[in-house]
From TrEMBL:
Its EC number is 3.2.1.39. InterPro entries: Glyco_hydro_17, Glyco_hydro_17_plant. It comes from Populus tomentosa. It catalyses: Hydrolysis of (1->3)-beta-D-glucosidic linkages in (1->3)-beta-D-glucans. PROSITE patterns: GLYCOSYL_HYDROL_F17 (PS00587). Residues 1-26 form the signal peptide. It holds the Pfam family Glyco_hydro_17. The keyword Signal applies. Keywords: Glycosidase, Hydrolase, Signal. GO terms for molecular function: glucan endo-1,3-beta-D-glucosidase activity. GO terms for biological process: carbohydrate metabolic process. The lineage of its organism: Eukaryota, Viridiplantae, Streptophyta, Embryophyta, Tracheophyta. The keyword Hydrolase applies. This is glucan endo-1,3-beta-D-glucosidase. Belongs to the glycosyl hydrolase 17 family.
């Protein structure tokens, strides 16, 4: 049996039954002054590749900016950053998270001047007018490319410093399922070997030394599909009296699959000696259409539930059981559906291809209610009581 499946089975079977109502909901401390949270919510925008005679025309930059403005989202991840698109974000107060393609890792690792050349094309002409805050050197490059990863990251970091740019962080992005060997229970999370010892440990030291973050793509949808013992509602942030799972090693109670996955990463970081390293969820989401007929849970209704629950949970400020401050940033995958999607391709957009609204979700303010709904409702109720008092 696949080890990931066996660990999932261990976690989710048998189920815990008949919890007391008094322990089913754990209230966080009431906020004293601020209603802001520590998690920055962003979205991924995947711009089309360079046009070819048969390709769909790319969306004009002004429509992308308009779509982001309509959602009140001010952090954007660009997996394949187009210089013209980066330029369009000048003076918009939108924070940009750029990625460097995996194909560039070998030359970047071999030559710092090539790293500088990439920065001259994608960063220097636009920064700081365009608020570039983070660069991911590669995305899930853990196979044949892993020997090039850390040298490429160092060269990009040093090239930035050569240019006098000190406020852009440099890291890389991993996929949860490819680096976490023991995801459940969360307290047993570790990094896969030999990847952990050879690559991730020295990388974590680099991230600590440069005040950067650990980046991870985290999809509860993928783990839910692996194991039928995971309740759908648990993956979708649905709150029911018996919809929780306990980590029997620590006694910690979990109300959603997202938190369990984050804490598995936190545990792996702790085992590696870097438990205080900030964690950024570089991708997360739920598809509204599936790649084939077996993906019966890839549909609009469930995708909206996941996005609403995720936003509410992140806005609540509750964090996770092992990381009270929560993840520092989280990026929803993705902003806009692909146009003319080929058969067998999932759709992840929070907007339709024509940029019209797909979900009834508020991405800012007090609109979202998730696992930390009690705290959110307290804050919102206090706000409206104050407004009502002054209006009267």
């Amino acid at each position: 049996m696949n080890p990931l499946v066996s660990f999932l089975s261990f976690c989710f079977f048998p189920l815990t039954l008949f919890p007391s109502i008094t322990t089913a909901i754990s209230l966080p401390p009431s906020p004293s002054v601020s209603i802001t949270t520590t998690t920055t919510l962003g979205v991924t925008y995947t711009s089309p590749p360079p046009p070819s005679p048969s390709s769909t025309p790319s969306l004009p930059a002004d429509r992308v900016l308009s779509a982001l403005s309509s959602l009140n989202i001010h952090s954007v991840r660009l997996p394949n950053p187009d210089p013209n698109l980066i330029r369009s974000f000048a003076f918009t107060n939108t924070s940009l998270f750029l990625s460097i393609p995996n194909t560039l890792l070998p030359p970047l690792a071999a030559n710092r001047s090539l790293a500088a050349r990439w920065l001259y094309g994608h960063v220097l002409p636009f920064y700081p007018r365009s608020k570039i805050s983070l660069i991911s050197v590669g995305d899930d490059a853990v196979s044949q490319l892993s020997p090039f990863l850390l040298p490429a990251i160092r060269n990009v970091y040093l090239a930035l410093r050569d240019l006098g740019i000190k406020k852009i962080s440099v890291s890389t992005t991993f996929s949860f399922v490819n680096v976490i060997t023991t995801p459940f229970p969360p307290s047993s999370g570790t990094f896969q070997e030999p990847l952990g010892e050879l690559l991730i440990k020295p990388l974590l030291q680099f991230l600590k030394d440069t005040n950067s973050s650990f980046l991870v793509n985290l999809y509860p949808y993928n783990l839910y599909r692996i194991n039928s013992e995971i309740p759908l509602g648990f993956a979708l942030f649905q709150e029911h009296p018996f919809n929780f799972r306990d980590d029997l090693i620590t006694g910690v109670r979990y109300w959603n699959l997202f938190d369990m996955m984050v804490d598995a990463v936190v545990s792996a970081l702790a085992v590696a000696g870097h438990e205080n390293l900030p964690v950024i969820v570089a991708e997360t989401g739920w598809p509204s259409t599936g790649g084939d007929q077996t993906e019966v849970d890839a549909k609009l209704e469930y995708a909206e539930m996941y996005i609403r629950g995720l936003v509410g949970h992140l806005r609540s400020g509750v964090g996770t059981p092992l990381k009270k401050e929560g993840v520092s940033q989280a990026y929803i995958f993705e902003l806009i559906d692909k146009d003319n999607v080929k058969k067998g391709t999932r759709n992840w957009g929070i907007l339709y291809a024509n940029t019209s609204k797909k979900y009834h979700v508020e991405f800012s303010g007090c609109g979202g209610i998730g696992v930390g709904r009690v705290l959110s409702m307290r804050v919102c109720l206090l706000w409206w009581l104050l407004v009502g008092f002054f209006l009267v």
